[in-house]
Each structure stands twice: as C-alpha cells, then as structure tokens.
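Raw record, unedited: Type IV pilus assembly protein PilZ
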Amino acid sequence: MFGKLGNISEEGLCFLGEDDLLSDEIESQVLGSIVWSKGTKRMFFEGTIIWTQTSKIKNVIYYIAGIQFQERLNLTDSMLARSLEIK
C-alpha cells in the first residue's frame, strides 16, 4: 500500500491513503517503510494502527490512519524538518 506522510514524530506517524483499506484495522500490527529523497533513502518501522478517519484535503478525499511505532525511531534531520513544515 502506498500513501503520503501526513506527519511524523519519534513515536508515530499519520498515513494518508486514497483507498479505505485501514478503517477496519484498528489495533492491527503493521510493517512499513518511509521512503524519501526521491526513493534513495528508506526507514523501516513496526507499529499499531491506533485510529482512522476520512478527511478532504485540497479537494481530495484521504483515508487517514494514526500509527504508533513499537519502538521510538531516530528521525533524520530531514525527517524532523518535514514534520515541522506540515501545518
């Protein structure tokens, strides 16, 4: 499943997808990766889906999921900058 990164911290992230595949998966375990720098960098994570909701952002319907990491991630400077630029 592919989506967009809505927000990230050392403890979790907000996933924005265009398909409603996670709404029935609350409390499910997930494995995933975050890809950035045009696909040249990747960070893997394990986590739990904590919440889901639907939201319209810039006239696009997104299916949003909050994922809590099983272990805190050490975010790179570019990932921290990304989390600060999202408002």
